[in-house]
Amino acid sequence: MMDAGIEDNSNHDFSGYDVRVTDAAQNGDTFVYVIKSQQISSDTEYRVEREFEDFEWLHHCLLTQEGVTGLHGIIFPPLPAKPGTSLSNSEAKTKKKIESLAMVDDWQMYCRALEEYLHLVTAHPVLVKNPAVHSFLKHRELPLKTKVKKGIFNKLTQAVEELRKEHHKDIDDFFQNERDSNLTLTAFTKAAVEKFLEIVLTEQKIAIACGHFSTALHLGIGQDDDPADYAFAKMCLKLSEVLDTVKKNFEKVAENDLNTLGFNLELHSRFQDAEKEMLFRRTCKLVDVETANKNLGQAKPHKKAAMEDIKKAADKEFDEISGMAKVEIQRYHRERVRAFQKALIELELAATCFCCSSTGWLSLNSSVQNNYIQNCTVWN
Amino acid sequence: MATEREPPPLGDAEQTDFRELEDGDDLFISTASTLESSPTSPEPASLPAEDICANSNGPQPAEISLDDDLEDLFAEATEEVSLDSPEREPILSDEPSPAVTPVTPTALVTPRVEPKTIFVPAMFERSKEELEEEANGDSFDMEIVVSDPEKVGDGMNAYMAYKVTTKTSLTIFNENEFSVKRRFSDFLGLHSKLATKYMHIGYIVPPAPEKSIVGMTKVKVGKEDSSSTEFVEKRRAALERYLERTVKHPTLLHDPDVMQFLESSELPRAVSTQALSGAGILRMVNKAAEAVNKMTIKMNESDAWFEEKQQQFENLDQQLRKLHTSVESLVCHRKELSVNTAAFAKSAAMLGNSEDHTALSRALSQLAEVEEKIDQLHQEQAYADFYLFAELLSDYVRLLTAVKGVFDQRMKTWQKWQDAQAMLQKKREAESKLQFANKPDKLQQAKDEIREWEGKVQQGERDFEQISKTIRKEVGRFEKERVRDFKAVIIKYLESLVQTQQQLIKYWEAFLPEAKAIA
Question: Which of A199, A235, A363 sits opposite B337 (nearest CB)?
Answer without folding.
Answer: A199
